[in-house]
Specification:
Elements: H1 7-11, H2 16-21, E1 49-57, E2 60-68, E3 78-84, H3 94-104, E4 108-112, H4 130-144, E5 150-160, H5 162-173, E6 177-183, H6 188-194, H7 204-219, E7 226-227, H8 235-240, H9 244-256, E8 272-273, H10 277-280, E9 295-301, H11 307-316, E10 321-328, H12 335-338, H13 340-357
Length: 358
């Protein structure tokens, strides 16, 4: 039997080294349970403030955080940015980091937990259907464009990982969004259908059968079946994961940036219902992508094993205005979420983009 190597050994030859040595953020050490570097700990006059809010989308209560910029004056008008979180993520992680940093530069921003996930409502937990996630983005736009001080004609969006794929779909028809950006875009339908890096072609029909059986069981009042979840992965389990994004993701979501609403069954952290595959496997973020005519910026790490999804979408977005692909040299997928030197580059580019287009 092949011997599994430990995280410490694996770190010697991969980007996991920095994650193992990075600071660990604890949700219970922040009054807003934010788990990212430089997170707000209190609202101070004259600085960025955070405002927990809730609203309804299709009768489901959505939990969100709105960030207002320094010296916010509700009688003035500000550009706004919607931030869509990754698959398995919650608003207190990378989505919150970028929402806060963009707000520091004069934008009103919103980061919300997807329906059925995190602190938002919806049962069974962790239903992950593309129509829901896309509607979450429309719903954030509905809410933030009514927020005091927001100039509804200057609305942008940033979609991260899975939130990036759902953003690509949402903006095809929602022209309230005047500037569209993605970070480490992940096409959930493509991966759930074909496997990561097209590694599961051979099992497509088997997995569709499993999804159909799971839905039938739910309809009969039986147990809801899940993919993922349970206890956090051990060093050995992480080391055995075949893709860097999944190895680093396990550390990010379960250790360095873990959150009470992520990383543990049955809330968020990558878990989703088996029956969701019925919708996911027939969906693709790039279907009808030619409908995007807004300015488009797509950012990815040049070492990310998920980069092929950004490249595919970028090449297919033939009608996007002034589109640009911006690569972060030396960055993996998960490193674009937290590593200071990469986050700094990403924010500089995003601010340049939003300033030009909002």
């Amino acid at each position: 039997m092949k011997k599994l190597i430990s995280i410490a050994a694996l770190a010697m030859s991969t980007g996991i080294t920095d994650m193992v040595n990075a600071q660990t953020y604890k949700a219970d050490q922040n009054p807003y349970t934010l788990v990212y570097e430089g997170a707000i700990k209190e609202n101070v006059k004259g600085k960025v403030n955070i405002h927990p809010v809730s609203y309804k989308v299709n009768e489901i209560t959505i939990a969100a955080n709105v960030y207002t910029p320094p010296n916010y004056d509700a009688t003035k008008k500000y550009p706004a940015i919607v931030v869509a979180h990754p698959n398995g993520g919650v608003k207190e992680q990378v989505a919150g980091l970028f929402a806060q940093r963009l707000s520091e530069q004069g934008y009103i921003t919103i980061a919300a937990d997807a329906a059925y996930q995190g602190a938002s409502g919806g049962k069974p937990r962790n239903v992950d259907k593309p129509a829901n996630r896309v509607n979450d983005i429309h719903g954030m736009a509905d809410f933030i464009t009514q927020y005091k001080g927001v100039d509804k004609d200057r609305l942008g969006v940033l979609g991260i990982c899975g939130g990036g794929g759902y953003t690509i779909k949402a903006v095809q028809t929602d022209k309230r969004f005047k500037a569209v950006a993605t970070l480490s875009m992940f096409n959930s339908g493509m991966v759930r259908r074909n496997g990561f890096m097209n590694s599961q072609f051979a099992t497509i029909q088997d997995r569709l059968k499993q999804a159909s059986d799971a839905r039938a069981l739910e309809a009969a009042g039986g147990e809801v079946k899940y993919i993922g979840g349970g206890a956090a992965a051990t060093d050995e389990q992480i080391a055995a994961m075949p893709f860097e994004m999944y190895r680093e993701g396990a550390i990010y979501y379960e250790r360095s940036h873990a959150h009470p609403n992520s990383g543990a069954y049955p809330n968020s952290g990558g878990t989703y219902t088996v029956s969701s595959l019925i919708d996911l496997m027939a969906w693709d973020a790039t279907d009808q992508i030619e409908l995007i005519n807004q300015p488009l910026l797509m950012i990815a790490g040049d070492k990310a094993d998920s980069y092929y999804m950004t490249a595919d979408a970028f090449n297919k977005a033939i009608n996007a205005k002034n589109k640009e692909l911006f690569l972060i040299k030396g960055a993996t997928h998960i490193e674009t979420y937290w590593k200071p030197e990469f986050v700094s580059q990403e924010l500089t580019k995003l601010l340049e983009f939003y300033k030009a287009n909002l």
